[in-house]
Amino acid sequence: MDEEMPFIQGHLITENDRITYIGTEAPEDQGQFTEIVDGTHKVIMPGLVNTHNHAAMSFLRGYADDLNLQVWLQEKMWPIEGKFTALDVKWGTALSVLEMLKGGTTTFVDMYDHMGEVAKVVEMSGMRGCLTRGVIGLVPPEVQQAKLEDAVSFAKEWHGQAGGRITTMMSPHAPYTCPPDYIEKIVQAAHDLDLPIHTHMSESPGEVEQNVKQYGERPVEHLRKLGVFGRPTLVAHAVHLTDEEIDVLKQYDVRVSHNAGSNLKLASGIARVPDLLRAGVLVSLGTDSSASNNNLDMFEEMRLAALIHKGVSGDPTAVPAGTALRMGTADGARSIWLNDTGMLKAGMKADFIALDADQPHFYPKSNFISHIVYSASAKDVTDVWVDGEQLVRKGICLTLDEEQVKYEFSRCFERLTQ
Amino acid sequence: MDEEMPFIQGHLITENDRITYIGTEAPEDQGQFTEIVDGTHKVIMPGLVNTHNHAAMSFLRGYADDLNLQVWLQEKMWPIEGKFTALDVKWGTALSVLEMLKGGTTTFVDMYDHMGEVAKVVEMSGMRGCLTRGVIGLVPPEVQQAKLEDAVSFAKEWHGQAGGRITTMMSPHAPYTCPPDYIEKIVQAAHDLDLPIHTHMSESPGEVEQNVKQYGERPVEHLRKLGVFGRPTLVAHAVHLTDEEIDVLKQYDVRVSHNAGSNLKLASGIARVPDLLRAGVLVSLGTDSSASNNNLDMFEEMRLAALIHKGVSGDPTAVPAGTALRMGTADGARSIWLNDTGMLKAGMKADFIALDADQPHFYPKSNFISHIVYSASAKDVTDVWVDGEQLVRKGICLTLDEEQVKYEFSRCFERLTQ
């Protein structure tokens, strides 16, 4: 992702959690290294950064396909999610972390409940997580208050933990699920803690209409007036935007997590990604949960981002491969303020992955950036490192016990669906 | 794909090239079988049917991304394809057949030149192929005549070969690349040989405009008047259609190969698949070549077909998972008149594949049809059978030597790009 050197055949050296060298020249004394990894037939690239997920919702993969967003949320997702215990969140998240890690995602954003469980899974897995307790405010004041306190105490307790691999944010779930005064309280808490804000915004046409009806303005202006954009902010979706709203996002440096697969599946619409990019808004990629995707394959998100905007706009140069790759890596990291992650460059964090490029769909061995975006999948990932630690080796996760995770996940699922 | 029994946990028996039993009851005497395959943790499903490809174009994967169709074809594809020898077609096709087979595609349609080489690769691989020599008629009359004779002699020689696994068709490349009188000659040849016709149609807005300008009518009416639809016909793309054109396709039982990935990548547009399905047109799925896709993963095509029409129409019920799965299997087979293929049912051809379902993205083990369409990829395929013969075992192709194919392919690629 270094623009001066987009693709090389060469060597990469790490020390502790950092990359110390990348280049075509071989290091002189190979005896100085504690470990040497042979990269023959491998593509080494930055780990993928998934900027929007609700990992515990893996229980709901395939549970309610082909429905519209509000029905899907209110009649299908929320009732079963209401039954989730801390144990379910633990194992649901563990299954997703396993899927993400094995598929080359080294950092993810997670917004959910029982976030202490999520943080513990992230800590154990070795992955990097930007975590936030999402709060829905359509509840009595004392419940609102309790949720906010839970969000604050989670954010405080875990920010900077796991050797710095965990950071936290504050999250009103969405303008349509949080009354304005509640959003203001969350913004104040974010100021007090000096943390960014993450929220869902303008995902479906219906919620934009409802916002206008209820508050007299569209979501962007509504959130701006409530002071949200006075904090560093990452919004998920941002599908339905006017030109003026795009200008506001740019002006306040609001970052957008584009969830191409989820937006298609829930028929939410096609985000104005080429316009956002043209305006200079920082756009990254998120899978959203596996309930609306239905996998956590970030290669697929890069491919969708590169493909759909061409097909819909009629412009085959929209979102070229290099742009999609940057959205899935370096720009994903920058979107969550991890400026030393997401790029293979001396001084950056040693978060990187290896793909098996000795397969038919990587031939001819001519244009690997194209192959990564247009041809690869999560299943091509063989090895994964975060902070210089190897977490996946030859497709096997070294930090989580896959058999245990699948077994415990299935036990939870049986109980939830009894 | 049997609508009465969409998904079961049970047993499947084959004898020679046919399925003789599928059901939940175990067969009584297991000693009667020559081979028993343990399907624990496996999903067994019909092999995928790819109804539009130019397999030899694997050399051009990543060669010219992010350009519009006419520039891409005329300035990038055709000049390098002009250099292709029979040897290139052999190894380019072999690489694609390897990719397709390992990824669960058991039948493909191929339109190209040097088709004898393609047929020999198909024969050796054990795969099923519906093959056709595509002819471009913008050449002097004697070259037109020679190409037509080549197409006829290929179609005659190979139809019904390889134990019936190979069938053939006649193919004018497209209305914009074949003068009307040449198309009529090809139609006459198809009548003489009693073979179907395959052609590209209405892929980009530009070619539809050109057709109107040059011939005074849109491609569907143009082809209808030339007698094309008097033969059984499969058209690829059919992106730009009017309501009246959809009616004509239905009236003549013209089958449409929907190439979702290719149409997006080349910014050709979004085919009116929900409208075609509503009208009762038989729609199947094709990858098109890896130059415009860029892989041959039919799971991705099913997923794209299920996703993009939701996102574009705003209707989350458009192309549900079961429909996409049928398009990729049973309807694909019917589209090329293989009515005894594409379904797991007693009496049908024993073309089926096994997926490793013991992976995080197949959990919970609740809705496998959803998981196949929305979560799986070519890389989940472990085993492949065609005509009851096992062609891929634990991810290894048993009929083609992968190392040899990659080596010879790379030698050809070097020569082509010198």
TrEMBL record, chains A, B:
* Record's keyword terms, sorted: Hydrolase, Metal-binding, Zinc
Q: Where is the Amidohydrolase-related domain?
A: 43-390
> Where does this protein hold Zn(2+)?
H52, H54, H200, D288
Q: Which reaction does it catalyse?
A: S-adenosyl-L-homocysteine + H2O + H(+) = S-inosyl-L-homocysteine + NH4(+); S-methyl-5'-thioadenosine + H2O + H(+) = S-methyl-5'-thioinosine + NH4(+)
Q: Which cofactor does it need?
A: Zn(2+)
Which domain of life, per UniProt? Bacteria
Stored InterPro entries = Amidohydro-rel (IPR006680), Deaminase_MtaD/DadD (IPR023512), Metal-dep_hydrolase_composite (IPR011059), Metal_Hydrolase (IPR032466), MTA/SAH_deaminase (IPR050287)
Q: What is its EC number?
A: 3.5.4.28, 3.5.4.31
Pfam families with a match to the protein in the record? Amidohydro_1
Under CDD domains, the record lists: ATZ_TRZ_like
Record text on cofactor binding: Binds 1 zinc ion per subunit.
Q: In which residues is substrate bound?
A: E81, R133, H173, E203, D288
Sum up the protein's function in the record's words: Catalyzes the deamination of 5-methylthioadenosine and S-adenosyl-L-homocysteine into 5-methylthioinosine and S-inosyl-L-homocysteine, respectively. Is also able to deaminate adenosine.
Family affiliation: Belongs to the metallo-dependent hydrolases superfamily. MTA/SAH deaminase family.
Q: Please identify the protein, giving its name as recorded.
A: 5-methylthioadenosine/S-adenosylhomocysteine deaminase
